[in-house]
Task: structure prediction
Amino acid sequence: MTEDVAQRILAGDVRALARAASWVENRRPEAEALLRELFPRTGRALILGVTGAPGAGKSTLCDQLTEALRAEGKTVGVIAVDPTSPYTGGAILGDRIRMQRHHADPGVFIRSMATRGWLGGLAAATTEMTMLLDAAGRDVVLVETVGVGQDEVEIARLAAVTIVVLVPGMGDDVQAIKAGIMEIADVFVINKADLPGADKLERELKSYLSLAHRPDGWTPSIVRTVASEGKGISETLEAVREYHSRGSSPDRAAQIWSVRLREMLRERLLDRVPAQDFVAAGREVAEQRRNPYSILHDWLERL
Ligand SMILES: Nc1nc2c(ncn2[C@@H]2O[C@H](COP(=O)(O)OP(=O)(O)OP(=O)(O)O)[C@@H](O)[C@H]2O)c(=O)[nH]1
Ligand SMILES: [Mg+2]
Result:
């Protein structure tokens, strides 16, 4: 059955793609069989990560980037990762994506990813969704993540090019921004440049960049946007392409895959210990009835 779905996806069938996307979201076994088959067809899409603080305008920017890419005739996939709301589900996420105007366009495929609880798996699921859209022939895959926690940094690290969206004011000055996020930026977007403080933010960013030296010698570009008015969008794409056209280094690709494999293994291992075992073991340890190390030892033996 997955072969048939794979063929239809490769032929550009959007309904087959939607079906496969729900397999990936729901962590169904079909997803693995399908992706195993589709893997040789991946590696063509430009995977573009868009990360930044809540409310920075990431979705608005993704919407505008999508619009610009569609005008060039490119097909687009959008994955909105929302680790903050494991319980809200699709409706609220859909609302947060702010991409309603593209819903009728088969050239734009939009999916939201939320955690399935506290055992994580979000990074692995996002990777697999990215592979699916890549194999389906999307020219560009945008991955929106809120850049707050370690998981999100991991997810952003999976992109070939990462945009970090900053906003003037909001106490969002460079010192306050998590170091992990600053380091993964290939392009900085100063969004909401219509608000006061954009000059100050750009100065701070420049002085930060003059001190930070990346191993690949790239100095991240800085672009100002007013995403809500569609300003600075072509400049953003230009900056992305300038970085991307240097050719993704084999090192970066290998590094991305080693992170992905770690996430995929983590998820498979965690999946093999039923959730109730964690609950029971937690109680045993809390009551000093068992030693956590002997529990780990037993689990590893069993695997
Ligand atoms: N003034 C101004 N407002 C903007 C700009 N871009 C986006 N906004 C507004 O900022 C708010 C948040 O925008 P979103 O695109 O939802 O931000 P987000 O980063 O995706 O938010 P989360 O996904 O909730 O973290 C919305 O009300 C937008 O209309 C801008 O350039 N200037
Ligand atoms: Mg958003």
Remarks:
- The two ends are 29 Å apart (CA to CA).
- The pocket of guanosine-5'-triphosphate (ligand 1) is lined by residues 52, 54-60, 96, 98, 146, 191-192, 194-195, 226-228 (CB under 6 Å).
- Residues 60 and 227 are 6 Å apart (CA to CA).
